[in-house]
Prior knowledge:
Organism: Streptomyces colonosanans
Largest sheet: 7 strands, mixed
Distance between the termini: 41 Å
CATH class: Alpha Beta
Structural class: alpha/beta
Low-confidence stretches: 49-56
Keywords: Methyltransferase, S-adenosyl-L-methionine, Transferase
Number of domains: 1
EC number: 2.1.1.-
InterPro entries: Ppm1/Ppm2/Tcmp (IPR007213), SAM-dependent_MTases_sf (IPR029063), SAM_mthyl_Trfase_ML2640-like (IPR011610)
GO molecular function: methyltransferase activity
Strand content: 5-15%
CATH superfamily: Vaccinia Virus protein VP39
Amino acid sequence: MPSLPTGVGLTALCTAREREAENRRPDRLFEDRTARVLTEVIDELPRPTGLPDGCSARSRAFMRDFVALRTRFFDEELRAASQRCRQVVLLGSGLDSRSFRLDWAPGTEVYEVDRTDVLRFRHGILSMIGQEPRCRRAEVGADLRGDWPGALRAAGFNPWRSTAWGVEELLPYLSHTENNQLLRDITAMSAPGSRLVMDHFDRALQRSARFSRLTEDLYTVSAAWRSTLEIPDRWFTPHGWTFALTNPTELARRSGREIPDLFTPQAGAQGLMWLISAAR
């Protein structure tokens, strides 16, 4: 079994735990069998030096509801996009298992891009499960602050085909400059008809007292938030994307869930967490 990923890669472990917690609910918003096995294996591995209990306990109360709603949002958006875009790219895929659990349109190809240590860890666990993917899939080891477009093309990606891009739990860990470059790279490889699904948050959430402990945990594992997104249209429009925002509060209502206070914006704020779907 390969060792645990380091730094920001450790955040994927926290997300896997929260998806497994949702998986146990009778009213679950999705079913993720892989998350169950991942959590069991992770719990048996030695805890890396410096990883606080907060990654699995203190921060859980703050993120569990959002992780469940965000997962449901990305599931629905990406599955629907695959009806038109048979090429799907998951940037910063982490321990995601969508290749194995979603009903993709026939002929869909999914490219999972992340750091090599993260992919190696997940591959070791998935090989134990023996679960078969529901699409053609390729793992692409690359640093998203480097030449990941070159690595993606080398893996067989075709920039002339429309693509559905999934960028989940990634943007806050990149700087504004890195996010701008990421969007430029995505745009350069997006044929007409492409779709883009993202999440981010604004500065008000970063300053929230409710998130102070989570912020401390992230700093402990060298995975600090480095950027926020205040006005999405100023970012997307110059790149030629039209977009729509889904408020987690509205998503909670549609999903039959109690609306956590965490999702309620302060007076005058547009929102604390952004769920974004865009088209080109």
